[in-house]
Amino acid sequence: MHYSYILSTALCFASFALSHTLPARNSPALPPSQDPWYTAPDDLLSYPAGSIIRVRPDPLSTYAAIGTNLTSASYNILYRTTDGNDLPSFAVTTLFVPVSKSTSSKKSQGLVSYQIPYNSPTVDASPSWTLSTELNSTFSDIAALLEQGWYVSVTDFEGPNATFAVGVAEGHAVLDGLRAVTESSSSPACESSKAWKIGLWGYSGGSIASEFAAELRATYAPEIEIAGVAIGGLPTPVAAVLKAVNESPYAGLIVSGLWGYANAFPVVESYLLSRLTDEAKVSGNFTAGRNMTIIQIFATYPNVDVYSYFIGGEDDIFASPLLQHFWDTQGTMGVHGLPDMPMYVYKAIEDLLAPVQDTDTLVEKYCAEGQAAAARKEGGAQILYERNTIGGHVAEEINEDEAAVEFLSNAINGKLGAGWPGSGGCVVRNVTVGTDTAPDW
Ligand SMILES: *[C@@H]1O[C@H](CO)[C@@H](O)[C@H](O)[C@H]1NC(C)=O
Ligand SMILES: *[C@@H]1O[C@H](CO)[C@@H](O)[C@H](O)[C@H]1NC(C)=O
Ligand SMILES: *[C@@H]1O[C@H](CO)[C@@H](O)[C@H](O)[C@H]1NC(C)=O
Ligand SMILES: *[C@@H]1O[C@H](CO)[C@@H](O)[C@H](O)[C@H]1NC(C)=O
Ligand SMILES: *[C@@H]1O[C@H](CO)[C@@H](O)[C@H](O)[C@H]1NC(C)=O
Ligand SMILES: *[C@@H]1O[C@H](CO)[C@@H](O)[C@H](O)[C@H]1NC(C)=O
């Protein structure tokens, strides 16, 4: 019927439209926390990681708001993934179909998994629900990708429990999202069997998901080939950011981050609640953040000393062996594997929110490991790391936007060229790019 027609012309979804439940035509769109569509099936365990559980036309028709001259349809795809406890879970991605397809190669089709820093501990802040409202400043990025003729997959990488900043779960959600999208095109009904050329892109909170996906690819999803990864404003280690932003305009990130870990790990939730001061229990100031979007969180906690909500202050967060275990295993980049695809890393030197030294350290580690791997003829990192002399963390997202799309274009079209660091290579350079000179605070 109608949907299967749209789906098959769009991305060869025909077989899925027939075999997967579609919603009633006129059901009103509901926030994820209230929408039965966003639930795990009883037989979740029987789905392999990355397999599609349900597909529906995006009930919010976000594609129309982005521009029907760029995208002809958007779909929500719900798929099996694996959470931070290595247990089966699910996630949702919103897939945009480009109007013009990649022309660079008749044999391949570009696809970018774009990770938005939604930075919230509530599932109702997921991009599949908030893209055209809270998160519509990302439309220009999505449009820039669609203009290249690429499919764009916008992942709700925090998953149904909104596990903000829990890197392993987020990386899995990105990789399984890629499996789901590429699986969707492999039905026999498809007119062609083009190979996908895949790029990842994420800034700040989005880079956590993209970067962990790059690290985990070789062990978790080795069949997924990634042509290039553009990541900026890396907030690693997460604990360093939680230290840096207290009493700053972005202090709310601490509330968001702590709830993200509590959402993922019940033992963290019990611990945090047990450490709240009587005053914080009475005011409910800490608990209130759990259901807020990041815009609400920034508005609620500017310049607040978030650690004053805890009996032992900052020590309750940074001197706790329990939390340290999670910061080390889930919130630190560079410990889950060496990314082996070309990566473009960008960062403002004056980034106060996620200090540049920590990204310097990560890149140095990858470069050293990459050289060792290349010496063993086992591939290795291929990184261009640009440190920008202009602006702070927030400005950098805009300042290097074009550079990120240009990198993805070259990577996806096989045109990185001789100037690109070869296998095991690494180039670190200071640049002066962009016009937004705003400091962070
Ligand atoms: C799409 O339409 C918008 C205005 O609605 C215009 O600004 C943009 O340039 C168009 N893009 C393309 C690729 O035609
Ligand atoms: C959400 O978290 C709870 C508590 O850890 C867990 O029991 C549940 O399975 C999680 N849900 C999903 C879909 O991962
Ligand atoms: C984003 O949404 C707001 C209102 O929710 C609207 O005023 C604004 O024009 C939208 N921006 C874009 C780029 O669609
Ligand atoms: C969080 O809960 C409060 C109180 O119930 C409500 O006013 C607010 O809109 C909720 N926020 C979100 C994002 O659901
Ligand atoms: C927290 O609670 C106190 C009252 O105990 C109030 O004065 C304060 O403004 C509240 N807000 C935040 C964000 O801490
Ligand atoms: C880049 O800038 C830093 C200051 O942040 C300086 O210490 C370093 O020497 C510069 N590196 C290069 C390659 O110019």
Précis, in short:
By secondary structure, the chain is of the alpha/beta class.
What does this structure look like?
This protein is an alpha/beta fold. The chain has two domains: 3-237 and 332-431, 3-Layer(aba) Sandwich (Rossmann fold), CATH 3.40.50; 238-330, 434 Repressor (Amino-terminal Domain) (Orthogonal Bundle), CATH 1.10.260.130. It has helices spanning 2-11, 14-19, 62-66, 127-130, 139-147, 167-184, 205-220, 238-244, 252-264, 266-275, 278-283, 294-300, 315-318, 321-330, 356-375, 393-399, 401-412; strands at 52-57, 71-82, 88-98, 108-115, 151-155, 195-203, 228-232, 342-348, 382-388, 426-431. Strands 1-2-3-5-4-6-7-8-9-10 form a ten-stranded mixed β-sheet, sandwiched between helices. β8, α15 and β9 form a beta-alpha-beta unit. α6 crosses α7 (205-220). The structure holds 2-acetamido-2-deoxy-beta-D-glucopyranose (6 copies). One 2-acetamido-2-deoxy-beta-D-glucopyranose is lined by residues 349, 387, 429-430.
Give the total of beta strands: 10
Please write the string of helix (H) and strand (E) elements. Answer: HHEHEEEHHEHEHEHHHHHHHEHEHHE
User: Which small-molecule species are bound to the chains here?
Assistant: 2-acetamido-2-deoxy-beta-D-glucopyranose
Mean pLDDT: 91
Our estimate of the beta-strand percent is: 15-25%
- Biggest sheet overview: 10 strands, mixed
How many structurally independent domains? Answer: 2
CATH topology of the largest domain: Rossmann fold
Please compute the radius of gyration using only Cα atoms. Answer: 21 Å
Structural class: alpha/beta
Strand line-up in the sheet with most strands: 1-2-3-5-4-6-7-8-9-10
Kindly, what is the distance between the CA atoms of the first and last residues, rounded to a whole number of angstroms?
A: 55 Å
Low-confidence region ranges: 1-10, 13-19
Structural shape: globular
Signal peptide: 1-19
Organism: Talaromyces pinophilus
InterPro entries: AB_hydrolase_fold, Lipase_secreted
Family: Belongs to the AB hydrolase superfamily. Lipase family.
